[in-house]
Amino acid sequence: MMKDFTKYQQLIDRFRGLANKPDFDAKFNAATGNIVKTEKFLLKMELKRLASACTRVLDLRGLVDGECQLFDYNGQSHFLDNIAIQVFNENIEAYGSYSFGVYEAVKDTKNNFQNIYQNEQNNAERSVNKSVSTTKISNVIEKSQYPAKLYCFDNYPNRNEERMNFAIALTLTLSGNKQIQTTSVDISATGLKLRLTNEKTLAKGEVFSVFFTGFEEEFQFNKDECLTYQVQNTYRNSDTQLVGCQRIDAPEKDSFLRFLTGYIQGNKRRYKINLTNSLSALQARYIEQFSLVKLNELVIFMQDSAEAAHASGQILTPRYALTTINNQHIYQYWRNEKKQSVLNFLIDNERFSRLKMAKAQGQKLLVYSFIHQHQGNTFFYSFDDQQLKEDEGFFIKFLAFAASKESFAITLLDYQQVSAEQGYSPYTLSNALSKQQSYLNPPLSDEVKAVLSTLPYVVTASDLTQTSDISEYQALGFADLDLEKVKTFGHKSNTTTLSLDEIYINYTIQRQEPRFKYKTPVQVECQPLNCSGISEDFSVSGLKVELDEAARLSVGDVVYLSFPKLQKMTSAFDLKQLPYKVVKLNRSKTIINLRVSVKEHQHIGRSFFKLLIEKNKTKLTPDEYAMLMPGLSAALRTLYAVNSTTIFSMIQSSGSRYKIDVLATGKASLKAHSGLLTDMRHLSDRSSYYNLYPLLGNLNVSQLLEQHLKRKLSTDQALSDILYIGIRNNVEQVDKAVTVKLSSELDSAELKKFFIKRSLKQGKFYCIQLNLSRSDKPQMEYLSPELSYISAYAIHRGKHIEQEIWSVAGILQLIDITQETLLRYRVAV
């Protein structure tokens, strides 16, 4: 049977709406005399089908590139956009009534997403064919638009009530008893969104009465009963305005409130729940999860200890540090010979004051440091670029002297003021469902709130050492340097230990037992391996061991441990050749995490350590991270995300290739109306999109990212590279306005200086550190409540966003190091 009538489209258009006319057969036979009888019969049946009455409702929301509105025809409600309404009316005029021909014409408008996609595919194929045929002329078409959507980490629009997409007739009574007839867009138990034309406007805060005309048959209203609503928000476009309202007169035992709650519960699958806020929140949540676990900057929360010390003024000390595999080296750098944190050397009260001064000038603070080892003791020296201004001659020599040390480091500091209220990101679900999932995301406890109230600032420390050309600092020379003056920049060791907790950023609760710090010799055997080490900590079912040398082990291997020192303490347990399974290894394979391996009998090690803990609870030192108050680590993580100014980009797999069309950051970045993010928005030819041409406009960058990503493992540290970007003013063509170079392409200091000088003369210059990481497996337990909720009412949307989550292959973090680059070349002149 012929199903494709494309070749007869002209005949179908000619006889559109005539199949039920008396003279149809005569005219049709005259026009189809040369068509085969079987095809002629099928074509006739198709024309009659298109002219037959249709009762299907048209709902194009989410299917077309346009804003849909309620459209009534003969008492039947449809949701159509402006183009669809025009096609609907044209075909109604042709067919005379609502038929299948009208229905299918409206479903096949030019702005339908399916048609847009098909046209793009056809255009792409034509472009490919054209380029193949003209290879001798040009086989490369330059691309100047790399559109990306920006997401904010703290985009969690919560709703106390479920909202149902539902159109119902309303009568509004405004001030002066002016009445307006309109319809709702969606409703909740105490909320309402309605549509008005722009001639009839409502302002935020305005109060008016609503009579639910469309509910007169379902609910018995009292005579002239109206409900009072207040405008909460408005959104206008060229033709209409959407008005969000909240009921303000509802008593506790309101009969209409009970009716509306039951009506929504009974019909939400039929009319569809409005999932806009849940979709936005889930997107923000999964992007945040992928980004934060690969964070390259060290996050330090500063505690105000003035009140505790009964002192006047603010005394700031580092209290918590959020670490990842990529920023661990920064945390380790600022530790003394006793493995105690000395982050107060990096950021103390005086330096924080200078950081504030730099921030007021629109800059960050560059800290230069080195470490001197003497007789087993560690001495830290540091100074910052604000101090450089005090005596530039001395500090240039000091900078060259510091750069000559192997321990030389450059750290970029920034800070944000934070508030305890920002530490919680609730699930965007109805209250009932939130309670079911409260164990995954509980509200902040009073204890956690009390801790957050003592943390007024979050400082970020980015390491620029690896990507900076240190040789240019060394070339400055430090002859005649006043060494006595250098000593004044040394940090004196504190007699009291800094109270600082390290918190590893994670979205899973991996520790099921209390863990205690304990060092004891361990003998590790696994054919042909036989080596020794020291335990770092232990629990009943596992322990961490630092080996004396790297071991050829893999996750899943079973090793046999002996505890010679512990064996001397007991004769009741045989602590030799105890089987443990390797569950984690560091990259150098010198630190292994182990779990008991139980086969046929009880593990002796588990019994021994259980008894050891029970009898020595007051003597053993608990692992501080394991003993942190519940909810604190998640609150600190959220607090940073909300105030982050770092830009992240998702790299997602698309078939056999990768695509980059997602940017993410905290809202703090959007408050600054300057910087690369702002310029990427200005370079875009699409509203609400950002053009990634300053990052991907250089073909070498795209190829480099793709090659490295294919070789990287999720356990590898981030790979860093540098981009030099110049943006010319008053040039409309993006490819001519923007110049992008990798550091390796500018292979000499002279070339880099020339590029910087020319870029600043013509417009703007940016130097960006790219940090590429392979993504970890998503922790779906953390995402599942909102994902399950979405899938329950819109399975296609749930599947789509789940595919997006699992397609994330890598994370690209952008750190603006323009300040350090400009300073380096200024002092090097």
Description:
The protein is 34% helix and 26% strand. An 8-stranded mixed beta sheet has the order 28-3-27-26-32-31-29-30, sandwiched between helices. Strands 14-13-15-16-11-12-17 form a 7-stranded mixed beta sheet, with helices on both faces. α27 (780-793) runs antiparallel to α28. The model is unreliable at 127-141 (pLDDT under 50).
Entry summary:
By secondary structure, this protein is of the alpha+beta class.
Notable characteristics:
829 residues, alpha+beta, eight-stranded mixed sheet, seven-stranded mixed sheet, 26% strand
Straight-line distance between termini? 82 Å
Overall body shape: globular
Structural class: alpha+beta
* Spatial sequence of strands, sheet with the most strands: 28-3-27-26-32-31-29-30
Low-confidence stretches: 127-141
Please report the total strand number as a whole number.
32
Q: Let me know the largest β-sheet.
A: 8 strands, mixed
What proportion of the residues is helical, as a percent range?
A: 25-40%
Output the radius of gyration.
34 Å
Task: Give the assembly state of these chains.
Answer: single chain
**Mean pLDDT across every amino acid position:** 83
